Amino acid sequence: MSRSLRRAARLPILLGTVVACALAGAGLGFPAQASRTVAESYPVPADGVFRLSGHGYGHGHGMSQYGALGAARQGLTYRQILSFYYPGTTLGSGAGAIRVLITADTDNDVRVQPATGLRVREVSSGRSWALPTSSATTVWRLRTVSGRTVLDHHNGAWRTYLPGGRALSGAAEFHRTGSLTLRVAGTTRVYRGAMRLASNDTVNVLGIDDYIRGVVPREMPALWHTQAVRAQAVAARTYAAWERAAHPTRHYQTCDTTSCQVYGGVAAEHSASNAAVDATAGQVLLYGGKPAFTQFASSSGGWTSAGSMPYLVAKADRYDGHSGNPVHSWTASVTRSAIQKAWPALGTLNRIRITQRDGNGEWYGRVEKMVLDGTRSDVTISGSTFRSRFGLRSQWFRPAGGTTTASKAETTVSSTTLSPITRRWRKIGGYQSVVRGPSSREYRVGAGRARNYVRGRIYHKAGVGARELHGKVLEVYLRRGATSRLGFPETRPRKFRRGVYANFEKGTIKVFRSGRVRVTYSR
Predict the structure, then answer these.
(1) If you ran DSSP here, which 8-state letter would residue 168 be given?
(2) What is the pTM of this model?
(3) pLDDT recorded at residue 392
């Protein structure tokens, strides 16, 4: 989730475009939010340097880590933090083991140091043999020869060892109670769990909570506010559970780099973050009964960005802009010569034109599309491409100077073929309505459709119509969903003497001023 661990800021940008694109390509995700067409023109400055102002660090999907810190400082619990950044999810359990690729070990074998209680195990049969402890043996090794797994030990020279007097069959692994010391890339690393040789890769097989112990302090400073670190533990555990579910048969299910989550084994652990893991043991966020895709990034810049799932919404983030966040706002410079070198087809760069933003926050939000205007040709690129090429903290930026205008643009449907959801949104006031602006495109829900908005959702089903839900009624409904016994909404939330209610196909939700909730079913 997020791209790289920036030690200057002490935080990562988790999960880059690789995972998001994989989701979209597999047809699993929901497209990004409706955009705003803009017309911004920035001529090349006299000195050839574009001076950029920007907000946030990372893609902005899901939890802002600095935002989690700000929320914790305001008194929110980790459960409240997670509810804010992943609306519509619920806490559940997600125990079990996970298989982690150790990417630095590229020599096609697995080597571990001798230790008391060290054993070797065949993965297919589960048979296990104790390995002798000898001062003459300096290392044990698993390798593949002609399609079979060979166990060697080194005591002045490599010698093959036959556990139980027989050769190993299929994938095998080292394991012992406690930890293992892996030899990798000329050094040693300590890991919990087992070290498996599978498809010539080194794979750490361990319990998901033991894995998370080596992740959390690499993704968030362990000594941050306790509630923020607990939120990080649940988000990281959930992402691991999501990857495990996405790759049930692959010989590894996640990796140890920023392409997945940064994992450092025992050496990365810290007593404070271990306490957060223990306090949230086994807890994951669920959506539709399955682990959620809990992307997170360093800083939202004040607005989260709609992602590939309905709970990754675009919303104002009031917790991100505290004084302890050094990347809520930032500046950077990019030269004309650097742009011309990156895109030689331009010839000489005349200006930068920004044509589309996501519509949220200052300057109308993150750059989605921009045009590099050159003497030989124009080059159209995404804001994320520009950001990646020049190492910007996010794609929410604006060059100094220039001119800018903007117009609202509904990109989901044309003006002549508005969907029932969009017609309802416009009828209740559009951007000025109770649900504000859209934060996703429409997606299928059971027998109907839905669309996320900044402050609510609109649902539609043929024969029932389109109705908006928001506030506490929506919160209660999301815990059940349009595919539950309630069905689709028949009315918007309405006030009554003791609170607010909404009617559904097969029932009613009432939320009382006291905080009590009553859900009744009509048939």
Answers:
(1) -
(2) 0.72
(3) 98
